[in-house]
Amino acid sequence: MVVGHSVTDNLFGAERSLLDVLAAVDRRSFDLSCVLPGGNAEYLRSVAECTKNITVLPYRWWSRERPFDEATVSRFESFFRSERVDLVHVNTMTLMDPLLAARRLELPGILHARELLDQDRELAAHFGDDTAAILERIVTASDFIIANSDSTYRLYHKEGRSFRLYNCVDVDRFDLPNPLEPGKLKVGIISSNLPKKGIESFVDLAVMAGRRRPELEFYAIGPRTEHIVRLEQRLRAEAGPVNLQFSGYVANSVDAVRQVNVVVSLSLVAESFGRTIAEAMAARRPVVAYDSGAVPELVRHGRDGFLVRQPDLPKALEHLETLADHADLVAEMGRNGWERARQLFSPDVFATQLNGIYRRVMDAWTVQAQSRQSSA
Fold first, then answer.
1. Predicted local distance difference test score (pLDDT) of residue 183
2. What pLDDT, on a 0 to 100 scale, did the predictor assign at position 11?
């Protein structure tokens, strides 16, 4: 049973990653079910392509004020019993109720850790300001941890029961040409457009480029949020020209990355993986990003793109100018990134590792159950 944490109109990293998990499960070995907290019709259709056994239940994220909800835990318990569940896989650390239900029924509960909580004050504030206590609560409630990067693995480590599994990217679907015009470069940031994603820094970068290299084109791809409205107002007050477009949300991530030659990531909060970065690499787009979180695990500086220290925007612009002046370097870095994405993030690699983790979990749980029986 895979338990999702969110279903909204606009799908971002964790929601798309849940679809990758469902698609990767070996149906010859596992009967797959999915539980979701909402009923977005398009998302449900995508889930139904992987499993027809879908249940929508009302449940919420845990928080400091509501560590768990007894009624919801009981509902999950009844559901796990009726579905004869053997293994529970919870998509993010935001859900506590299904983990507690699994614990009460002595079912192995896997937490899929996708958040660098110690570097995200906004998220930590929702659960409680003491990050160490939050992490202890999460790790204690989980029997096993799947971490989406080495950075996440270190943070949520559970001795002998942790696994690192990079997110999945359909490398074949993202394999796109990257045409360039001499001296020009289309630079994009693709995100949820929340302030913590560094959209204002991207605007600052575009303003700087407008003064030095006005032929560089900048595209902020993502939903029109209140933050975007304020940034648009700011741009109208700029004295000089700024070659920046707010392109809006693009549901198909392939179509989003197709619009640009280079993808920039300026997140103010360290990325636990960086899905748009991995997708850019799969699409043969060099990446310019802050050197924080899991990003250096993905992007090799000088080979797949460039890494800069936060908030060194002048250095980021310098790298963009280098790429604009050297089409051969764009092609070389794009090829390197595509090869790395195929090696680390391809669906075949992801599926092999995920199903291997499931088998190891079930084997360990069987040994543990036998040990309990022999000592009883």
1. 80
2. 63
Quick one: residue 290, left, alpha or beta (phi over 0 = left, psi -120 to 50 = alpha)? beta
Look at residue 342 and give its three-state secondary structure.
Answer: helix
For the segment 57-81, what is each residue's pLDDT rounded down to a tens digit?
989 999 988 999 999 999 999 999 9
Distance, CA of 187 to CA of 333 (rounded, Å)? 15
Handedness of CA 63, 92, 255, 308 (dihedral sign): positive
Question: Largest Cα–Cα distance in the chain?
Answer: 78
Q: What is the mean pLDDT of the chain?
A: 94
Amino acid at the residue 48: A
* Structure token pair of residue 203: 């605007």
Please report the pLDDT score of residue 128 as a whole number. 84
Calculate the alpha carbon distances from 321 to 233, 262, 288, 302 in Å. 27, 11, 11, 14
Q: For 231-253, write each residue's pLDDT tens digit.
A: 999 998 887 889 999 999 998 99
- Helices and strands in the chain: count of H runs, count of E runs: 16, 13
Q: Report the pLDDT value the prediction gives residue 305, as an integer from 0 to 100.
A: 98
d(CA 366, CA 107) in angstroms, rounded, equals 10
Per-position b or e across 247-256, b if 16+ CB within 10 A of its CB: bebbeebeeb
The amino acid occupying position 191 is: S
Q: Which two tokens stand for residue 221?
A: 């791809």
Question: First CA to last CA across the chain, in angstroms?
Answer: 29
CB atoms within 10 A of CB 236: 7
- For the CA atoms of the chain, what is the radius of gyration? 22
CB 123 within 8 A of CB 114: no
Helix axes 70-82, 97-104, angle to 10 degrees: 60
Q: Which two tokens stand for residue 17?
A: 């990653």
Beta strands (DSSP E) in the chain are: 2-3, 34-36, 54-56, 88-90, 109-113, 144-147, 162-164, 185-190, 216-221, 244-248, 262-265, 287-290, 305-308
All residue ranges of the chain with pLDDT < 50 are: none
pLDDT at 372: 78
Nearest-10 crossing angle of helices 41-48, 13-24: 20
22 in Cβ contact with 45 (< 8 Å):
no
